[in-house]
Write a structure and sequence with these properties.
By secondary structure, this protein is an alpha+beta fold. 41% of the residues lie in helices and 28% in strands. The protein has four helices and seven strands. The strands form two sheets. The chain has a five-stranded antiparallel sheet, with helices on both faces. The chain has a two-stranded antiparallel sheet with strand order 1-2. It is globular and about 40 Å long. The protein starts with a helix and ends with a strand.
Length: 152
């Protein structure tokens, strides 16, 4: 009987550490906001061309775990994407989430109307291969929308 309780305790302890490790691999809302603000400061200090090159470069300082900066113009065209530079030049305005929500349009509308904020939607998490709740924080800077998302 003691052996069974000991095995159960070890199993629960292992599960706790596993859940903590998974949570630690995910970025937080505060980290996403900080990443966007860091990207805005970098654009202001270095100009768009140099900033976009940095955002798109392998090993960019604007990609951390599941956090990455993206930048679009006012029409929804991707100008920089630290998570997937192959998206640069693409118009994503008509992209829909798993439930049909035009989430790119939603966060652009938010950035234009309020200057900054969060948009929620459901998206495939490449780390888990599951559709998960995602929130993206965006800020408007002149004619740009800069964002970073988190999985919840």
């Amino acid at each position: 009987m003691i052996k069974i309780f000991a095995q159960l305790a070890y199993t629960l302890l292992a599960l706790t550490f596993s859940a903590t490790a998974i949570a630690a691999e995910r970025g937080t809302a505060d980290e996403a906001v900080a990443m966007v603000r860091k990207a805005i400061a970098y654009i202001k200090a270095n100009g768009k061309e140099k900033a976009f090159a940095e955002f798109n470069s392998p090993g960019s300082r604007f990609k951390d775990r599941d956090l990455y900066v993206f930048v679009g113009d006012m029409k929804g065209n991707v100008l920089a994407h630290a998570g997937n530079p192959k998206l640069v030049g693409k118009d994503l305005m008509e992209l829909r989430d798993a439930e049909g929500k035009y989430f790119v349009k939603a966060y652009y509308d938010l950035a234009i109307a309020k200057g900054k904020g969060w948009t929620d939607y459901k998206w495939l998490n490449p780390a888990t291969s599951a559709i998960e709740q995602k929130s993206t924080y965006v800020e408007k800077l002149d004619d740009l929308v800069i964002g970073c998302g988190i999985y919840k």
